[in-house]
Design goal:
The structure is a single chain. Helix content is 33%, strand content 18%. By secondary structure, it is an alpha/beta fold. It has one domain: 2-Layer Sandwich (SIR2/SIRT2 'Small Domain').
Length: 251
């Protein structure tokens, strides 16, 4: 890959609206399991077998055990130098009247923990729930998220399913609803929230520099964001450990 830092610094110094697109690679150094690639199993399943509306309809207890495990793991994790540098960049540039937006595929909230203010979480968050009955979305940092999940969710393949009855799984707290809650994350086979997509589109239209950090640019629709910016002649800088399918499209 072509690395011309002098060229990049020049472009960076002039940019007024910077869009930073981040993925799992940004959180890897914080010890966040990605459940992608080799060894990406929880018990006998890969994430894509659990993170679907069908899996949740079939076995909400198992899916909640998986997400409870991920929430508990995340509560012990901290932002790494990448998250902190990105938050610091936003803080410094905003003092100069320049804007930075972080568009992330991550659901771990580490950008938020690091202090990023202008954040678009396109795949939702581990620490938000959505009611399957009334649709209410709420922040939720309880540990455990409900009493029945306490001590559950162990990832090793020998662990038995907890088989928690639906009425003991997380329930909606809106007046008189009591609907079953689900994680407010975008699952495989689901579309992104159109309101968030509209905001992302707006940011991509005004940005004059785009950074791609720690994402392989293969998960759609996020994989299209940077190429779309590049196509209108805006510089895109990719920060990754290895070349990705999109590398050749960027400057």
């Amino acid at each position: 890959p072509h690395t011309d830092m002098a060229d990049f610094r020049e472009v960076f110094a002039k940019a007024k609206h910077i869009a930073i697109i981040t993925g799992a690679g940004v959180s890897a150094e914080s010890g966040v399991p990605t459940f992608r690639g080799a060894g990406g199993f929880w018990r006998k399943w890969q994430a894509q077998e659990l993170a679907t509306p069908e899996a949740f309809a079939r076995n909400p207890s198992r899916v909640w055990e998986f997400y409870h495990y991920r929430r508990e793991v995340m509560l012990s994790k901290h932002p790494n130098p990448a998250h902190i540098a990105i938050a610091e960049c936003e803080r410094r540039l905003s003092k100069q009247g320049r804007s930075v937006v972080v568009i992330t595929q991550n659901i771990d909230e580490l950008h938020r923990k690091a202090g990023t203010k202008h954040l678009l979480e396109i795949h939702g968050s581990l620490f938000k729930t959505r009611c399957t009955n009334c649709g209410n979305v709420a922040a939720n940092y309880k540990s455990p998220i409900c009493p029945a999940l306490a001590g559950k969710g162990a990832p090793d393949p020998e662990t038995e399913d907890a088989a928690i009855p639906v009425e003991d799984l997380p329930q909606c707290e809106e007046d008189g609803c009591n609907g079953l809650l689900r994680p407010h994350v975008v699952w495989f086979g689901e579309t992104l929230d159109p309101d968030i997509l509209t905001e992302v589109e707006k940011e991509l239209e005004i940005c004059d520099l785009c950074l791609v950090v720690g994402t392989s640019s293969v998960v759609y629709p996020a994989a299209m964001f940077a190429p779309q910016v590049s196509a209108r002649g805006v510089p895109v800088a990719e920060f990754n450990m290895e070349a990705t399918p999109a590398t050749n499209r960027f400057r």
